[in-house]
Design brief:
Elements (H helix, E strand, L loop, with lengths): L1 E5 L5 H13 L3 E3 L11 H10 L3 E6 L1 H4 L2 H12 L4 E5 L7 H7 L3 E4 L4 H15 L13 H10 L1 H29 L7 H24 L4 E2 L10 E6 L13 E10 L4 E6 L4 E2 L29 H8 L8 H6 L37 H6 L3 E6 L29 E6 L1 E2 L3 H8 L12 H6 L4 H7 L7 E6 L6 E5 L8 E5 L6 E2 L2 E4 L4 E4 L8 E5 L1
Parallel strand pairs: 1-2, 1-3, 3-4, 4-5, 7-20
Antiparallel strand pairs: 6-19, 7-8, 8-9, 9-18, 10-17, 11-12, 13-18, 14-15, 15-16, 19-20
Helix pairs in contact: 4-5
Amino acid sequence: MKAFISYSSKDINEAEKICTYLESKGKVCWIAPRNIAVGKEYGEEIIRGIENSNVFVLVYSQHSNSSQHVLREVERAVSKKIPIITYALDNTPTNKSLEYFLLSTQFLDATKHKTATLQLLSESIDQLLPTTKPFEKATMSAPDKRSLFKRNKIAFILGAIAIGVAAIAIALFMNGSNLKNNGGLGTDSSKTVAVNNAEGSEAVDNAGAADEAKPKLQTGVSAFTDGDYISFGRYYPPGYSKENNDGEIIWVIADINEQSGELTLVSQFILDIMPYDTAESGKFDKDKAGNSYDRNKRDTYALEQLTEFRGSSDWETSNIRTWLNSSMANVKYDDSAPVDRGSDEFTNGYDTRSGFLHDFQDHELAMLQEKEINTSMNALELSPDKKGFENPKGKLSEIPEMLLTCKATTDRVFLLSVEEVKKYGSKETFQPFTKPTASAAASDKSIWLKSFISNGDTNYMWATRTPEATSSELLVAVLTGTGSSDITNYYAAASGFGIRPAVVIKPADFYLLGEGSSTNPYAIKGK
């Protein structure tokens, strides 16, 4: 017998407290990500957890009220006729979609007396299941393990001290043996002098080698090959810390144009996690008239209305394009700014952030080329006789060559199209599947990255600039490379898209430092 605990990621601390309390009362709880088996599909495990539960506990708040993940879980519980108890952390009015499913459920107000309400929650679960056998003995949760550690703290410390003493004794014994075998420190000073002299000679030799290894002045791009790595520009996401040491952007050379002297660079890692575009109304799943999105009526909405609900997949007008191409401290957006409330989880907005190019140096900005790029269109602009990118499923290598209707934009920074991902990915030197930097991961406030990690993924999905042709709000993204499909689509206002920029640079005469590897990338210095 189990209680499934549904919550927004922003309320995880409260959810874990509820779980700990219920399990202390002998009840078994299912809570993500703790109960998701490594290597299993996250969504599949959620569904299985709900269906195998006897009661559904909704941790209700302003965050869960706006969470599409929570809404889907509640919907599943209702369809399976699982009793629902709503444990309310605040007094946020319930949105219409959630209200529909919670009309006949038990509602517990935890805004004032949480301890008493927790007790009432436990008793309510017992009352909902009067004919069932008692709950199975709860498995030890993470909080229980911490308690066990505390109870055995003295034994743990004494054990650690004993191990430490033993280690010191062994080290002293081994050191003594070494001293004895070598005649002891100072008993054979000639050995020490010889070593020092050898080190001095090596230092002189290295100094001479360093003179010979001074970088030579380079002209053109013949010094590079596909797959070389270059350190170029800086970006500091909100989660950046000096310990991560990932403010310097590392790019991989995806393409070399020797005729024009240009290099196409794609960031080695995902540099941030944020919406591609946000709801044009300024609030996710609301249109400009204040109407709420109804998934059952999707086919009846005008294409423009869908962008009001869930953002636009059009590269030209997207928030992400404006932000990527700006070097300003205060970015100006032509349409609705990328505020938190415009994304699916009301988080990861970037309306107050400096532009992506803000921390690039002047000589780096000078190397960036304004390039005309072609991007396929979405349903807003495609006429019936024109073709766009449809049905984004399957492996990249299996995507057929298509003559798509495109439009051109001029950009210094851009996201790759699906066609470019396939093209560069066919080279062994470019890896389509990648992970976020440590600072990018620390910046994510949504459930997205956590879901992938819970599923055992190392890599993470990232947005292309390609729209899905039959809609106005669906965008194509590259997945992790471990599933049956390499790409998928999702609405543009999703808060969890990985951002992996690309640029085209044209170095003038320059010095080249480094060796071009991922651990020691090239650095381009002016002459």
